[in-house]
Amino acid sequence: MKTKRSERLIDMTHYLLEHPHTLIPLTLFSKKYESAKSSISEDLTIVKNTFAERGIGFLETVPGAAGGVKYIPKMNKKDIEAFVNDLIEELNHSKRLLPGGYVYLSDMMGDPKWLRRIGRAIASQYMGTEVNSVMTVATKGVPIAQSVAFYLNVPFVIVRRDSKVTEGSTVSINYVSGSSFDRVEKMELSRRSLDMGSKVVIVDDFLKGGGTINGMISLIEEFNSEVVGATVIAENIFRGERSVKDYTALLKVDSVNTEDRTIEVSAGNFLSSLD
């Protein structure tokens, strides 16, 4: 049965949003809605213009018989700046101060509203770059990695500090903790989790000394793979030299006063990486 244009636009928009970075042939929409390709093209122009105006992303068209349309859920820099300011406002509060100068993030890591925005913002940095996988360690970084992976439309892999029977055979490495250079720790990754020669984005919640990220970099090298980039929610105060230098952070913890329980958070270097 032929579909009304208003219904077609709603259903088409939903399909595009659920399939980011997926090349969708116009024939799929044409058959689904029993409409001519010319009508589908007109509809997609409306969606494309609306997405661009509202900052939802953009539609990439690929000409030719094997072509189609692809939704790229990239945020523009203005929207990312507004989002980072929202994060700063949310985190600049004494109730979020934890021992050691850490900031409490667990509630946000369980809130879909924040996770969607965090994932989309981080993914925007790597759109236009070949990425095969998103990696994190088995802590609070897991939901972040899952969200970033969705918007990049790639798998995410979880590095563990202790092996699980269900992981099968693993590759393990020892690494020096960045915040305590006299402590050696271990991390492992299932051999089936990451293909050889992959291009990997690393994400995590916090960066202090950089040991965890440096360990993941070493693990990626064991798979003859390449690190595309590393991004964290916040970099914490660290007195010393970090073991990793090439990273981006949405936020930066500038100062912590445990006596009067005050914390100051500002924008990290993530925004400058978008220039």
Task: Give a short summary of the structure.
This protein is of the alpha/beta class and 275 residues long. Helices cover 37% and strands 25% of the residues. It contains nine helices and ten strands.
| Residue runs with pLDDT of under 50 for 5 or more positions | none
CATH top level label of the largest domain: Alpha Beta
- Report how far the terminal alpha carbons are from each other: 48 Å
Radius of gyration: 21 Å
Domain Bacterial purine repressor N-terminal: 4-73
InterPro entries: PRTase-like, PRTase_dom, Pur/Pyrimidine_PRTase, PuR_N, PurR_Bsub, WH-like_DNA-bd_sf, WH_DNA-bd_sf
Pfam family, one: Pribosyltran
Organism: Alkalibacterium putridalgicola
Distinctive features:
Arc Repressor Mutant, subunit A; single chain; alpha/beta; 9 helices; 2 domains; Rossmann fold; six-stranded mixed beta sheet; 10 strands
Describe what this molecule looks like in 3D:
With 275 residues, the protein is α/β, with parallel strands linked by helices. The chain has 2 domains: 5-72, Arc Repressor Mutant, subunit A (Orthogonal Bundle); 77-273, Rossmann fold (3-Layer(aba) Sandwich). Helices cover 37% and strands 25% of the residues. It has 9 helices and 10 strands. It has helices spanning 5-18, 26-33, 37-54, 77-91, 106-109, 112-126, 141-152, 211-222, 270-273; strands at 58-62, 68-72, 133-137, 156-159, 170-176, 184-190, 199-207, 226-235, 248-257, 262-267. The strands form 3 sheets. A 6-stranded mixed β-sheet has the order 4-3-7-8-9-10, sandwiched between helices. It has a two-stranded antiparallel sheet with strand order 1-2. A two-stranded antiparallel sheet has the order 5-6. α2 packs across α3 (37-54) and α6 (112-126) crosses α7 (141-152). It is globular and about 65 Å long. Pfam families: Pribosyltran, PuR_N. Belongs to the purine/pyrimidine phosphoribosyltransferase family. PurR subfamily. Residues 4-73 form the Bacterial purine repressor N-terminal domain. Residues 117-254 form the Phosphoribosyltransferase domain. Keywords: DNA-binding, Transcription, Transcription regulation.
